[in-house]
Design a protein that fits this description.
With about 350 residues, this protein is an all-beta fold. Helices cover about 5% and strands about 50% of the residues.
Length: about 350
């Protein structure tokens, strides 16, 4: 598959830290957060910023770590230990300090990532814990789940249909959380099948990192709707695929850290990964989840010892991307580039 740049959205004055696309009636909208202290809402069809939330801290130690759409008209943004909620129907500049309904995490732990579904926003923090906020409440509050990662938790995502949330962290673990019981239901160890003692990978200059879990996403194709199909991207360039209780690890997907991944919403059979090796890669999801090797039991990862070629690769990006987003209404991949949002087409 070929990948080519088609447009650039300009508006932020500093690096982009969070990026997501809308759904349903908002499927042509993008939402971005930046180190310039703003959240911007974009019309992705024309690359125009139509609303901005200003007034977030501009601080090298605090950033906008998560954003998303909730309810019928609201958007949320996580910064430091707080989640702010806005009504985006007022298409104008909004001051963060005046207009937000805000939820502050009791222990003051900084939020590292955020995911939304319906009226709910799930987040993980630097203490490795997970919480869920019901934004439809008149006075939104947070339910903290029992159990936590042994290190900073770095990513989180809702299952598209089931009462389930997944999270990943610097303890090299992917947790599957039961929303009804508000606890950890299963764990998969991203490092169990990886050999980090020797440099391996696509390039001779590959740097070896532990497989910290940087990003994850659920596969939402129809045939997977009744099960668990979850992919995670790691700091050593590997991808782990969880298919119900089977876990498969692909160790040579990027030369360096995978900063973000997502199943392409307009082509859910395709997984896109972006890496700090300045590449965008497209993968066949079915090949990654059904590798025709024997699976271990009880969430024990199996290293797949065969090469998996990407469907498409775009190399030598001008900057290292930290984010990726796709839309079910637009056949594009969006990522960040020095404070801009860049749209790529693939075919």
């Amino acid at each position: 598959m070929s990948i080519k740049k088609v447009s650039t959205f300009k508006g932020h004055r500093s690096g982009i830290t969070a990026l997501t696309a809308g759904w349903d009636s908002r499927s042509t909208l993008l939402l971005s957060g930046s180190d310039d202290g703003t959240v911007r809402l974009w019309d992705a069809r024309i690359g125009k910023s139509i609303c901005a939330v200003i007034g977030f801290p501009v601080d090298e130690d605090i950033s906008i770590s998560g954003i998303g759409f909730v309810g019928d008209h609201e958007l949320v943004a996580a910064c430091g230990p707080s989640i702010s909620i806005y009504d985006h129907r007022a298409l104008k500049v909004v001051n963060q300090t005046r207009s937000a309904a805000m939820v502050v995490i009791d222990n003051g732990s900084e939020i590292q990532a955020l995911s939304t579904r319906g009226d709910f926003a799930a987040f993980v923090d630097e203490d490795g814990s997970l919480g869920v906020c019901d934004t439809s409440d008149v006075a939104p509050s947070v339910d903290k789940f029992s159990g936590n990662h042994d290190a900073l938790a770095s990513c989180v995502g809702f299952h598209p249909d089931r009462p389930e949330i997944a999270s990943g962290g610097f303890d090299q673990q992917v947790f599957v959380w039961d929303m009804a019981e508000e606890c950890v239901a299963n764990k998969a160890d991203a490092g169990a099948a990886m050999d980090v003692d020797e440099p391996v990978g696509l390039g001779e200059q590959r740097l070896v990192n532990p497989p910290f879990v940087y990003s994850l996403d659920y596969w939402s194709v129809d045939e997977a709707a009744e099960g668990r199909m979850l992919a995670s991207g790691h700091a050593d360039g590997s991808v782990m695929c969880i298919r119900n209780d089977a876990v498969f690890c692909w160790s040579e997907c990027h030369d360096y850290s995978i900063s973000a991944l997502q199943f392409v919403r307009s082509r859910p059979d395709v997984l896109v990964t972006v890496g700090l090796d300045r590449t965008i890669r497209l993968w066949d999801a079915e090949s990654m989840f059904f590798p025709e090797v024997e699976a271990a039991e009880n969430y024990q990862p199996v290293k797949v010892n065969r090469e998996l070629s990407p469907l498409g690769v775009l190399k030598d990006l001008s900057a290292k991307p930290d984010t990726v987003a796709t839309s079910d209404a637009l056949p594009h991949i969006f990522t960040d580039e020095r404070g801009d949002i860049v749209a790529y087409a693939f075919e």
